[in-house]
Amino acid sequence: MLVAAGLAVMAGLAAPAGATVFHARDEALTLAFPDADRVEPHNHYLTDAQRAEIEKRGRAKVESNLVTVYTGHKGGELLGYAVFDTHIVRTLPETFMVVLSPAGQVIGTHVLAFHEPLEYLPTERWLGLFRGKKASDELRLGNDVAAITGSTLSAQAVTDGIRRVLAIYAVVLQGK
Amino acid sequence: MQWKGWMAAGACVALATLAQTTVADAADKAAILRKMEQLDRQQQAIQQQMEELRQELGLPAPTATPARAGATGRVEEVERRQDILTDEVRVLKEAMVLPEKKELKSTYGLGPAASKVYGVNQGLSLGGYGEFNYKEKVGDGAGVSDEFDHLRLVLYTGYKFNDWIVFNSEIEYEHATTGGGGSVSVEFATLDFLLHPMANLRAGLMLVPMGFLNEIHEPPFFHGNVRPQVEQQIIPSTWRANGAGLFGEIAPGLEYRTYAITGLDALDFRSSGIRGGRQNGAFEKAEDWAWVGRLDYSPIEMVTVGGSAYLGNSGQNQNFLDTGADPDSTADDVIYKPDVFTQIYEAHAQFRGYGVELRALGAFSSLDDAAELSLVANQTIGGQQYGWYAEAAYDVMPLVLPGTRHYLAPWVRYSQFDTVADVPSGFADDESQDREIWEVGLSYKPITQVIIKADYRNQNSDGGELADEIRLGAGFAF
Known about the structure:
The structure holds two protein chains of two kinds. By secondary structure, chain A is of the alpha+beta class.
C-alpha cells in the first residue's frame, strides 16, 4: 500500500526533474529573443584563416567551417545574435546557446540539452556569471570565472564554448 | 618591306594567341561542365543520404521546391541547392542533440520520437580516472623503502534508463593487482530516482557524504599525490556503505543529502581510527544503522561552506571477546555486547577564484565503549578523534604566460590529527597517533583533465619521527 502510494507520487513528480533536453530549438530562439518579430539563420562559411583566428582567440577548437548565427529582429532593429554550441562533456554531448547583444556582450547562456548525468550540469547561477562578458575578457576557469566542484568538465567545456562564440563574433561578425 | 614583315609576324602572333585562347576557353568550359555534372551527382547523393538520415531521425520532409529549368540558371541553381543543403546540414547537426520543435519536448521523457532523435545508445555514459606515484622516503625515514605505486584505476559506468531513473557506478582497481596486495572494489553503485530538484531518491552502495574528498576524489581536482590524511584517518575515505536516502537543492546554492546507511563495524576499530570499521558493501552487518546528513551552502559561486554529521551504533549486535591477560586461557575471557554509539561531525569551507584556492576542513568523532573496545583489540582505541587541515594554492600560470590554458599552482597544506584524543581510563595514550604534517607541492595541468604532481611531506608524531616523503606522480579523469 505504502509502496503503491510512493510509486504514484514518483510518477506524478517524475516529469521535468531529470529532463536532459530543456529547450527545443524553436523554443530556445524565443528564449534568446523574447521580443523579436523574426529570427533568421545566417550561415557563415569560414575560410581556413578565419577558423584558425577563431581558434587562436577563443583558445578552443572549431569543429566545422560552417557556422550558423541566428539574428533576432524587431522591425528594423537588430536585437542580437544567438549561437548554438555542441560539444562532448565526457562521452556524451551538451548543447548550449550563447546570446550576444549587437555590441558583442553576452546577454544570456542557456543549456539546451545535456546528456551526461545531471550532477555534472552547471547551475543557472553559474551560467549567469558570463553576463556582460566580451571578446576581450580572459574567461579562465578558477580565475575570472568561478570553478565549480563536481562539474569541472562541463564548466570547462562551457567556458571554452563561450570564448569560441565571442571569437566568432569578433572574427566573423565584426570582421576584425 | 621590313614593316610588312613585322606586321605579318605580329598578325601571326596575334592569331596564334587568339587560337590558343579559344582552345583554352573550350577546355575550361568542358571542365566546368564536367565539374557541374560531378557536383550535380554529388548533390543528388548527398540529398539522398540526407533524406535517409532525416527519415531515420524522424524529422519532417522539407518543403518541396520546384527545380528551375534552363541553362542560364545553372549557376544560380547550384547556389540555390547549396543553400538548401547548408540549411539541411545545420538542421541535422542541431537535431542530433536538439529537437527542432517544442512539440517533441513533451514526449521526450517517454516518447519514441525522442529516442529516435537521440539514438539508441545515448543511455550509456562512461568515465574514469586514475593516479600513480613514486614515493621516496627522505630525512627521518632513512632506511625505509621507496616505492612506485599504481594507486588507482577507476571506471565509471552510468546508465540512464529514462529521464528520471539513472544508474551510476565506480569500479576501482587499487594497487594494480589483487595478486600483489591490491584490490578490486565497487566504490559506489547507486540507483537515482530523480523526482524533483528538491528531493531525489538514491539507493545502493553510497559514498558517505562527508568532507571534500569522499565523494569527489578525481586526482585533477585535489592537490598532492596522496589525499589529505585527515580525510583518510578521521573521515575514512573512500567510505561507502549500503543504504538509501534523499538529496537535492532546497534553494539556489543550498544542497543537502540525507541517507540511512549500515553502521560501522566496531570490531575493526583501531588506535589509528575507525577506518577498519568500514564495511565496504560486502555482506554488511545490518543490525545497527546510522544516519548521515550533509548541507552545503554556496552564497556566491566562488565560496562554499558546509558541514555533515554521522550518528549511529557500531556494535552490530555482536559479541566482543576479550581474551583477558592470558590469551591461551579461556578462564579470564570476558564477553561484551557494546552499542558503540558513534558520532562524527565535520565542517568545511572553500574559496576558489582569481586564481586562489583555499580549503579548510575540521572533523571530530566520538565513540562510546572505548574501554571495552580497547580490551578486545588489545590496543588503546580513542574515545575521541579529531583532525583538521588548511591548504592554499595559487595558479601562477596567467602571470607567466597570459592567455594560456595551462595551469600551474604551488600549494601548501598544514594538517593535524589525533586518533586517540581521549584515552579510556586504565589505558596509555598512543602518542604516535597524534600527528602534524606539513606538505608543499606543485600541481601542473596541461589540460583540465590531466595533472602532474610533485610534493614533499614532512610528518611528525608526538610518539617520534615518521618518514618524510618526496612524491612524484600523475593523474587523470575523463
